[in-house]
Amino acid sequence: MSEAPRYHVPHSSPWPIVGSCALFVTAFGAVNFIHQTSEKIGAEGSFGKPIFYTGLAMIAFMFFGWFGTVIRESIRGMNSGLLDRSYRMSMAWFILSEVMFFAVFFGALFYARIISVPWLAGAGTNLETHLLLWPDFAETWPLFMTPSGDATQAMEAWGLPFINTVILVTSSVTVTFAHWALKKNQRILLGAWLGLTVALGATFLTLQVVEYIHAYTELGLSLGAGIYGSTFFMLTGFHGAHVTMGTIMLTVMLCRVLTGHFTSDNHFAFEATSWYWHFVDVIWLFLFTFVYWF
Amino acid sequence: MVARAEDVIPQRSALWAFITRWLLTTNHKDIGTLYLWLSFTLFFTAGAMAMAMRLELFEPGLQFIEPLFYNQMLTMHGLLMVFGVVMPGFVGLANWQIPLMIGAPDMALPRLNNFSFWILPFAFGLLISSLFMDGGAPNFGWTFYAPLSTTYGPPSTDFFILGVHMMGISSVLGAINIIVTIFNLRTPSMKLMDMPLFVWTWLITAFLLIMVMPVLAGAVTMMLTDRHFGTSFFSAAGGGDPLMFQHIFWFFGHPEVYILILPGFGIASQIIPTFARKKLFGYHSMVYATAAIAGLSFVVWGHHMFATGMPLATELFFMYATMLIAVPTGVKVFNWVATMWRGSMTFETPMLFAIGFVILFTIGGFSGLMLALVPADFQYHDTMFVVAHFHYVLYPGAIFGTMAAVYYWIPKWTGHMYDERLGKIHFWMAVIAVNLTFFPMHFTGLAGMPRRIVDYSLQFADFNMVSSIGAGILGLSQVLFLYIVVKTIRGGEKATTQVWEGADGLEWTVPSPAPRHTFETPPEFPPVMNRDADERTPVSTT
Ligand code: HEM
Ligand SMILES: [Cu+2]
User: Fold this and answer.
1) Ligand 2 centroid vs B319 CA: distance in angstroms?
2) pLDDT of residue B42 exceeding 80
């Protein structure tokens, strides 16, 4: 063995167990929170809300602690190329799992559009079902009127959603420019492009909120407005949650850049964030196409 | 940079040291042990639930438990066995063995590894605690079909949902870790096509996990929003469809059943060559067959839904796709048998379990083929025949596979040989009892006894009594297994480095018990096996 690889065999660490406790507290609090607010179950006095927020705070604490440790190790030069490759592979596989998560909701969307809504309207061999259950139901997409009679209007694609598409695609470009700047060690440009990306992400989210308000107050489009509303809000909602996460990650990267972290050849965290950002962007393109446009 | 866990643990007291060692550990062997004990504990928990069911089914009529409670036992038994026993058991084996078998010092991301494990006790705590809640535990079967689980599910369903989310996080992170370990930490002289089959099958399993656990997460998320936030994914009144739930669930579910068996295939492929003292027959075809099975597993989910009235073309597609899986599976069975053909076989306990695996899993495979026939399945669906089928693939498949692995590798883990006589008794008890328990279910099922029902009509009485007696023996045999394991940990004949005369592979070059840290520098592959000497100085550890 001429050059033995430098393996990563870290100390025992408190962060994983903090993380699993945090997940537990969050999950436990979330259920009680939902039960408290649900007419069906009503679990007053179970302190769901404070427990849930405590759990979230614990998760944030875990991220700070855990990633803080990793960053310190990296800065002290304790990491090897081997570990870097492990991180890269892990992030790629993690993104694949996220893709599959979105795939389920897209699956639900296509199922509703291609199968369940036409079937309810009598397509294929389902005429009898149609006549027996909801003879007045007609097939449309977006589903303006559910079989049980909830009405909604459709969200227009070429207004805010289109602007948001432009914003998000632009932000994917700016984060790439930031990456190029980092590789050439142009710190000022790096900060500027990264800052712009964060700003674009925040704008996207703000417009998304505006759009939701519009949907709820003016269109009658809500989570409860039938399968169109369900798929619309679950897809855009989870996407929005991911953009929020991505924007937080980008902000952390920006702070780290400003404190002088990262070198032109050692900046995995930055790259992981930008992969994540591109992933969120690509998901949005699918969303725009199938949720808003067609 | 090699820092050791024991360097930093504050040595306040023995108890504190013990707690911190297991809570904070980043050592793959410790974490493997934790997984295995969790799996074992839940095995007895879920087993006790099975005993309660079989007790009630001993005779027709209602004797011991309420129908609603039966449903809860049924659901928790299924969920715990699948997510709490088989999966963590295999992950435990992966943790112990994969680094040893590919010459890696540990898993690629040791802290993440600890995280993956410690999520699980919390997740199962959440799930099991639902038994004590108002309205009782989930009672809709481990498949939690909507609307049983949405409109009609008890309040504890929401704890179940969040529990599933936590298990999913654990599985995905664990799978990522395993894949990265295999790709990145393998000793450089071991090529992909040199990898032991246990490693190969786990690599493919981990891929399946990453692909389908998020799908499960999506399914339970839709359940949650349907229950509390007014969405109508699974409600026809809003334009959704309860059948959509089944599609999503089984898109996860069928790859999931391969997650439950592929590592078992890997184990059989390690053990059979060792005790037949021959190389594995058809190594390459084994790898390709595993990959083919995994690929096909994504396009067969509809075979669980034949009776729902899918369009004819869809039914036919799923039927043929399912029957296609028999081809790579047949390749595997053929290869195992061909490996034994003219081998110098001996029948130590791991080999007995491996042979039991091959034969009984094949029976489960055949009943699966019967179920794959659309017209036949109209008759068999939701009968005890299905219960017989999946118990044949799960019990003598996944569970025997895990047990074979424990007997095979426990000398390496503990440094002691298990008690061979007791091991053989365990095997024969288990193999007889498994057949006694589950074989009659084929008959009752074909004769029309429905599954998931607490009572049955009189003509099924005899077979059910046989099943219940078998179940009792099976339960006892596992208590014996616990005793054997504990006994082996506490003492016994010293194991050599080689342990098994015919064994091959890197894990047999490290001393028994394997020291806390192994392969701190990458070993040479293939290793020089020294079968003659009882004890030898390992060349490749430091
Ligand atoms: C002592 C051993 C066992 C006995 C006696 C036993 C017995 C049973 C019984 C009576 C049922 C309910 C059948 C019905 O009414 O539909 C059942 C269901 C089930 N068992 Fe087992 N079982 C055993 C071991 C296992 C193992 C090892 C696994 C998995 C690895 C497993 C997985 C399942 C699953 C998935 C179900 C279906 C639950 C559902 O329909 O939701 N069982 N078992
Ligand atoms: Cu299946």
Assistant:
1) 11
2) yes
Q: Report the chain B residue with the minimal C-alpha distance to residue A112.
A: B240
Same-domain status, A45 and A91: no
User: Which residue of B26, B109, B231 is in closest CB contact with A223?
Assistant: B231
pLDDT band at A68 (very low <50, low <70, confident <90, very high): very high
3-state secondary structure A152-173: CCCCCCCCHHHHHHHHHHHHHH
Residue pair B274/B503 in contact by the 8 Å Cβ criterion: yes
pLDDT tens, position by position, B84-119:
999 999 999 999 999 999 999 999 999 999 999 999
- If one counts every other C-beta atom within 10 angstroms of the C-beta of residue B183, the result is 16
User: Domain containing A200: what range?
Assistant: 80-293
Q: Which residues of A121-154 are buried (b: 16+ CB within 10 A; e: fewer)?
A: bbeeeeeeebeeebeebeeebbbbbbbeebebeb
Nearest residue to B442 (alpha-carbon basis) of B482, B390, B491, B395: B390
B78 Cα–ligand 1 center, Å:
6
Interchain contact, A11 vs B232, CB within 8 Å: no
Q: Report in angstroms the alpha-carbon separations of B294 from B237, B346, B458.
A: 37, 32, 42
Q: Which of A38, A105, A112 sits opposite B218 (nearest CB)?
A: A105
Judgement on whether residues A27 and A164 belong to the same structural domain of the protein: no
The dihedral built from the CA positions of residue B80, B86, B91 and B97, taken in this order, carries a sign that is positive
Cβ <8 Å between B215 and A100 = yes
Number of domains comprising chain A: 2
The residue whose C-alpha atom lies closest to atom 27 belonging to ligand 1 is B395
CA distance B443 to chain A (A): 35
Q: Is B515 on the interface with A (CB under 8 A)?
A: no
pLDDT digit string, tens, across residues B63-84? 999 999 999 999 999 999 999 9
Rounded mean pLDDT, B16-38:
94
Q: Is B77 in the pocket of ligand 1 (CB under 6 A)?
A: yes
Check whether residue A59 and residue A176 sit in a common domain.
no
What's the pTM value of the predicted model, to 2 decimals? 0.93
Which token pair is A294? 């067609």
With beta carbons less than 8 A apart as the criterion, state whether B466 and B499 touch. no
**Beta pairing partners, A151:** A145
Return the closest-CA partner of residue B263 out of B208, B199, B211. B199
Interfacial A residues in 86-125 facing B (CB < 8 Å): 86, 89-90, 93-94, 96-98, 100-101, 103-105, 107-108, 111-112, 115-117, 119-120, 124-125
A226 lies in the same domain as A243: yes
Confidence band for A79, pLDDT divided at 50, 70 and 90: confident
pLDDT surpassing 80 at residue B41 = yes
- Indicate if ligand 1 lies below 6 Å from the C-beta of B45: no
Which of A45-54, A213-222, B164-173, B315-324 is the least confident region? Answer: A45-54
A161 in the same domain as A54: no
Q: A94 to chain B: which residues are within 8 Å by CB?
A: 172, 176
* Closest ligand 1 atom, residue B386 Cα: 16
ipTM: 0.95
Q: For position A48, which CATH number holds?
A: 1.10.287.70
Q: What is the pLDDT of residues B259-312, one digit of tens each?
A: 999 999 999 999 999 999 999 999 999 999 999 999 999 999 999 999 998 999
- CA–CA gap between residue B44 and residue B59 (Å, rounded): 24
pLDDT digits (tens, 9 = 90+) for B377-413: 999 999 999 999 999 999 999 999 999 999 999 999 9
Cβ of residue B20 closer than 8 Å to a chain A Cβ: yes
Last residue of a domain, one of A78, A107, A126: A78
CATH number at residue A121: 1.20.120.80
Domain contains A150: yes
pLDDT at site B542? 38
Ligand 1: atom nearest CA of B471 is: 5
For residue A171, being part of any structural domain is answered with yes
Residue-wise pLDDT for B357-376, tens only, equals: 999 999 999 999 999 999 99
Give the chain B residue whose CA is nearest to the CA of A76.
B1
